[in-house]
Amino acid sequence: RTVRAACLPGGDSALQWAMSLFPGVVADPDVLATSLSNVNLVLHPPGALLAAAWTEATGGDYRFYVDAMTPAVARVLTGLDAERRAVAKVLGHELPSLLDEMARVGTVDPQAAERADVVAAIRGGEANKAIKGPDSIEHRYYREDIPYGLLPFTVLAGIAGVPVETADALLKLGCVAAGLDPVTGLDRVRLGLEDCGLDELIAMVRA
After folding, report:
1. One of 28, 30, 109, 145 is an active-site residue; which one?
2. Nearest to residue 201, comparing CAs of 83, 40, 36, 4?
């Protein structure tokens, strides 16, 4: 089981300390690779938004990675995952699929990941099997993963010039459903990337 880690230029000593303190930590080339490898970006917004009525009606009395992982949700996950990998490729990284990344961190069985059946693989993952759904719209799957996951992802996609229609739709729907103001999240301004192009972004994280 491994966890990706990277640092901004000048932070190499901190990265070395993390790798020495935590044996499962493996260095990645830059923070773009680690950020775009975050499985929660792909897992939480589709499942939480498409189960929002269930969340409010039951207070989260359902299993998020089992009951709420249906073929329709899996299709949205797959579309978002393809966009994530496309953005990463333009930024210089060939990242594994969601299932392969989940197998890497230990939440999906590697053999199930190889079969590429998203529903069966995620439902069968022992580590997540008993996790309940969000107990309200105030849950972090909405309040964190939308403004601090989806929103900065769409910023990176814009800089990379990659269309991300699934992410854009989830972001818009999520902000409306959860009553979120996008400017409170990590937008271009709060990321300090207002006038940043692709070359400038890559130089910023790799200089």
Report:
1. 145
2. 36
